[in-house]
Design goal:
Elements lengths: L1 H29 L3 H9 L4 H19 L4 H21 L5 H17 L1 H7 L6
Helix pairs in contact: 1-3, 1-5, 3-4, 4-5
Length: 126
């Protein structure tokens, strides 16, 4: 019983970490400052597209946080980060930060969703 409680606490902390990362990113797209808008324009994004990306990011995060839709949210956030990595590569920007976020997201998903872990790692007994 203590193990289940510990797992839930760890799950909550890790999910909260992911939520903070993506929430901060989404909010910066809703209320961009001059530096953020310049980075977006350098990437070829206009302000309305940038806001739309914030909406997609926020909806994906909400799906991630709801237990029933968490796997779908994980996949959407992973796809979103894949787009971020591709954009960084296209514009010659370092991909270290989005790759780290992608790895953290994947690790948390493996811990949080046993059915996803079983399917991706081809485990029979989970």
């Amino acid at each position: 019983m203590q193990t289940e409680k510990t797992k839930k606490i760890i799950n909550g902390i890790l999910s909260g970490l992911v939520a903070l990362i993506f929430l901060g990113s989404a909010v910066s797209k809703f209320f961009p400052n001059a530096e953020t808008l310049k980075m977006a324009q350098d990437s070829g994004l206009n302000p309305s597209t940038y806001t739309l990306l914030g909406i997609v990011e926020m909806l994906s995060l909400i799906l991630f946080l709801i237990p029933r839709t968490g796997v779908l949210g994980t996949l959407l956030l992973a796809a979103y980060m894949g787009g971020a990595i591709a954009t960084h590569l296209e514009h010659g920007v370092s991909i270290i930060a989005p790759c780290i976020i992608q790895c953290v997201l994947f690790g948390i998903a493996m811990f949080r969703f046993p059915e996803l872990r079983a399917r991706l790692l081809n485990l029979k007994n989970e």
